[in-house]
Design a protein that fits this description.
The chain is of the alpha+beta class and 157 residues long. The chain has 4 helices and 6 strands, in the order βααααβββββ.
Length: 157
């Protein structure tokens, strides 16, 4: 039987890192909510014609970057994972495992997930400690509590 382990790290980011993390949290929330609105509008337009509804292509986060240039400043993988999370939420809804997807709010726990690519995630304190690669999961959700005072990164492997 496989065992999953998680490590929880408390971060004390610099001012620049805090700004970047805040931008990332906001951008991920913005993209998720924007995509949810577009899916609802598409459903309202084609709800009577199920065949046409299934053929509809939904926009990717990259299509929003031209209209909203602030999305270019944040991690593209975090935005792509927001799209995957919305797809998973719809899948769970249609399979009767969850309620209809709701909008993300900045008043509650905020999170985003990024992927480890080419050693881009590392812990640095006097020395550099790269987070080890794993075989089970390479997703790294970052969490921020509602008051915004601390950040945590959960690492599953």
């Amino acid at each position: 039987m496989k065992q999953y382990k998680a490590f929880q790290f408390r971060l004390l980011p610099t001012k620049e890192q805090t700004v970047l993390l805040a931008k990332t949290f906001g951008s991920v929330r913005f993209v998720y909510n924007k995509m949810l609105v577009e899916r609802k509008e598409t459903y309202a337009e084609f709800k009577d014609d199920k065949a046409t509804l299934k053929k509809q292509k939904f926009p990717t986060p990259a299509t929003y970057k031209e209209a909203f240039p602030f999305l270019k400043e944040v991690d593209a993988l975090a935005l792509a994972n927001a799209q995957r999370n919305l797809q998973k939420a719809y899948k769970n809804f249609y399979e009767h495992r969850a309620s209809f997807p709701r909008f993300k709010s900045c008043k509650h726990k905020q999170s985003y997930t990024t992927n480890q690519v080419n050693g881009n995630i590392a812990c640095v304190e006097r020395r550099s400690y790269p987070i080890p690669q794993t075989k089970i999961s390479k997703n790294h959700p970052a969490l921020r509590n509602p008051c915004g005072l601390s950040f945590e990164i959960l690492y599953h492997f």
